[in-house]
Amino acid sequence: GAVVSQHPSRVICKSGTSVKIECRSLDFQATTMFWYRQFPKQSLMLMATSNEGSKATYEQGVEKDKFLINHASLTLSTLTVTSAHPEDSSFYICSASDPGASNQPQHFGDGTRLSIL
Amino acid sequence: GQNIDQPTEMTATEGAIVQINCTYQTSGFNGLFWYQQHAGEAPTFLSYNVLDGLEEKGRFSSFLSRSKGYSYLLLKELQMKDSASYLCAAPLSGGYNKLIFGAGTRLAVHP
Prior knowledge:
A: four-stranded antiparallel beta sheet; 11 strands; B: mainly beta; six-stranded mixed beta sheet; five-stranded antiparallel beta sheet; about 0% helix
């Protein structure tokens, strides 16, 4: 069964709306989670590292004020796309791995397809 | 710098064998992952290699040569459902299992 749950799976909304995406680890506590974005026919691009109890670490070129990340508990990270515009339309995916063992595979959520009209 | 290269697209026939290559350049080495991703879905884990050699798992096998910075994914007895993107990924230096992905190889399996 799924070890990482992501919700919602699909969002369609008007330009200017803020959208919150949740990522939960189901079978383990994840001190670190990762958020990726994927445009059609392209690979996953890491946006940021979500750290439980501290600020997220953003990759170069990703606007921290645009993509707000909160990791308030050991099983939940949220990504909020603020004032979304059509160019933010993409497939957003979170991942986490069990910190109990090193180099364990990242488990991905099912992804959220965001469409901004 | 850190970089992962793999072919963009491949085609193969149902029942055949296909090999998807991946070359990587990373700061340090913490293993190499292969993921499968069907269109519109999240990636699913296929294999992880940290030592040289071939790891076999059913119809899928993965090979690693650390000295050459090279890996391949071997798919046998291809089925139509194997049509997907195959992503080669390596952990970035600094731990935390933060992955850098290759661009992915889109495999199309034809009857």
